[in-house]
């Protein structure tokens, strides 16, 4: 997106999306598509949480948006970037390895809300631990006081098959419920659903949807 920000356009899109969601899930805007001007418009229209994929972009935008905007990190986080980014965010959606947990433990000042990314669909291109690894991973994370695991995140498979997408989301919900039954009772959040499938995700229990193109594209 270049040039003047179309304020009416962003306002209309936000209103439509929030109307459809109707309070059922929190919206994290995927801010990789936009700069500070668009983020300022989102905030003016009630979307206060931004999700970035890249550390450089996060640091570049953060100082130029209104007070009260909160930053989530939704992309894959390289261990060597943890130091400069980890105290700038309020939630990490992509915790997927103990080596990352170790870096966070080293550099983060306060406990951080983290979502464990799970590759429910099994697609080779997707980040995340396998469903089978989840119980062991959660147990191991209990040894990291700076990491407060508040839920799970997944990316739906790249397919037009709505039922396959729904099955992925239902799978993540089931993993959370099983984990809670096993004693990880603090797992509340399900970060799942993007522009093409967020209403399906909400039907399957999403508490957070990560939305980009539906807010910014025609
Ligand atoms: C870009 C992105 C989104 C949003 O994608 P859209 O399909 O544009 O809504 C959500 N999650 C992650 C991790 C992303 O990188």
Description of the structure:
The chain has 218 residues and is an alpha/beta fold. Helix content is 39%, strand content 17%. It is built from 9 helices and 8 strands. It has an 8-stranded parallel β-sheet with strand order 7-6-5-4-3-2-1-8. β1 (26-30), α2 and β2 form a beta-alpha-beta unit. α1 packs across α2. The termini are close together. Bound molecules: pyridoxal-5'-phosphate (PLP). The site of pyridoxal-5'-phosphate has 13 residues, from β8 and α9.
Question: What's the structural blueprint in terms of helices and strands?
Answer:
Layout: H1 7-21, E1 26-30, H2 36-44, E2 49-52, H3 55-62, E3 70-73, H4 82-85, E4 91-95, H5 98-107, E5 112-117, H6 134-141, E6 147-153, H7 162-181, E7 189-191, H8 198-203, E8 208-211, H9 213-216
The structure holds pyridoxal-5'-phosphate (PLP).
Fill in the keyword field for this structure.
218 residues, alpha/beta, 8-stranded parallel β-sheet, 9 helices, globular, binds pyridoxal-5'-phosphate
In the sheet with the most strands, the strands line up as 7-6-5-4-3-2-1-8
Helicity level, as a percent range? 25-40%
Instruction: Tally the helices.
Output: 9
Span between N and C termini?
11 Å
Short recap of the structure:
The chain is an alpha/beta fold and 218 residues long.
């Amino acid at each position: 997106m270049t040039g003047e920000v179309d304020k009416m356009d962003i306002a209309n899109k936000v209103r439509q999306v929030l109307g459809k969601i109707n309070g059922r899930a929190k919206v994290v805007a995927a801010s990789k598509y936009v700069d500070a001007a668009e983020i300022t418009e989102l905030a003016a229209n009630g979307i206060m949480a931004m999700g970035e994929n890249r550390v450089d972009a996060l640091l570049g935008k953060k100082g130029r948006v209104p007070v009260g905007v909160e930053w989530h990190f939704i992309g894959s986080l390289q261990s060597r970037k943890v130091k400069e980014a980890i105290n700038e965010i309020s939630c990490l959606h992509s915790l997927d390895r103990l080596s990352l947990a170790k870096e966070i433990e080293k550099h983060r000042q306060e406990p951080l809300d983290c979502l464990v990314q799970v590759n429910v669909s099994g697609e080779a291109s997707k980040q995340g631990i396998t469903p089978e690894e989840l119980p062991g991973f959660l147990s191991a994370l209990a040894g990291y006081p700076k990491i407060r695991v508040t839920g799970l995140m997944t990316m739906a498979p790249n397919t037009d098959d709505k039922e396959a997408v729904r099955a992925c989301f239902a799978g993540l919900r089931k993993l959370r419920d099983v984990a809670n039954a096993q004693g990880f009772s603090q797992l509340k959040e399900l970060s799942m659903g993007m522009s093409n499938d967020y209403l399906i995700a909400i039907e399957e229990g999403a508490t957070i949807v990560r939305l980009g193109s539906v807010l910014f594209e025609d």
